[in-house]
């Protein structure tokens, strides 16, 4: 799934987990670049494909900046407008509201001014939505920090499809570990020392997926 951060328009490209990087690149060129041009930046998860040397070199050659999100901690915002209207600068005419959509007669300078004003307004709405969500999260968030010598448990749910732990469904453990902390990344993430069986996954995790390891004596 590829989503434009400004307009929220999306492309859904059918891909298999074992598809090659060559196939991903061809789909990307055909479905995204030929329609929308070269993006300034791309935010993605830390899938091995997106973190590969080829993908990094390919985007660097295009002049696109790659930003990797913190593992398993996405967020969404609202633009308060239909993606079609934001992307094309007009409402979508459909059988349901055919008469409500008029053909706008705009010349070049007017189109540029109107588009610029819409972009400014959308950015304001995105920032407002982001600030609002952050304020909600700050109220619920409990300050959680670990010391360098601490060991932590890792929440299992993000690992679905990456590795199995012998049991499935309700019998699957909620946390695995303990794992040694290697470093703090920014203010909300930590890098862990993972065993070989988890080598396919990125080792940096948001603090919400960790809890301190404690020994219970009976």
TrEMBL record:
Question: What superkingdom does the record give?
Answer: Eukaryota
| Matching Pfam families | SH3_Tf2-1
- Integrase catalytic domain location, by residue? 1-75
Q: Looking at the keywords, is Nucleotidyltransferase present?
A: yes
Q: Which GO terms describe its biological process?
A: DNA integration
Identify the keywords attached in UniProt to this record, alphabetized: Nucleotidyltransferase, RNA-directed DNA polymerase, Transferase
Query: Does the record bear ATP-binding in its keywords?
Result: no
What's the protein called, per UniProt?
Answer: Reverse transcriptase domain-containing protein
């Amino acid at each position: 799934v590829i989503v434009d951060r400004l307009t929220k328009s999306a492309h859904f490209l059918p891909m298999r987990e074992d598809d090659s990087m060559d196939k991903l690149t061809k789909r990307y060129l055909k479905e995204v670049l030929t329609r929308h041009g070269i993006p300034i930046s791309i935010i993605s998860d830390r899938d091995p494909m997106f973190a590969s040397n080829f993908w990094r070199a390919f985007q660097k050659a295009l002049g696109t900046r790659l930003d990797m999100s913190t593992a398993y901690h996405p967020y969404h915002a609202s633009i308060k407008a239909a993606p079609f209207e934001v992307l094309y600068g007009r409402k979508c005419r459909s059988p349901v509201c055919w008469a409500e959509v008029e053909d706008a007669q705009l010349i070049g300078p007017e189109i540029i001014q109107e588009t610029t004003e819409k972009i400014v307004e959308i950015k304001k709405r995105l920032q407002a939505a982001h600030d609002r969500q952050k304020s909600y999260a700050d109220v619920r968030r409990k300050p959680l920090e670990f010391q360098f010598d601490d060991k932590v448990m890792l929440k299992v749910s993000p690992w679905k499809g990456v590795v199995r732990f012998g049991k499935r469904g309700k019998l699957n453990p909620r946390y695995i570990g303990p794992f040694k902390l290697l470093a703090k990344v920014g203010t909300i993430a930590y890098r862990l020392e993972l065993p070989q069986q988890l080598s396919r996954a990125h080792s940096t995790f948001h603090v919400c997926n960790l809890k301190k390891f404690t020994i219970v004596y009976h």
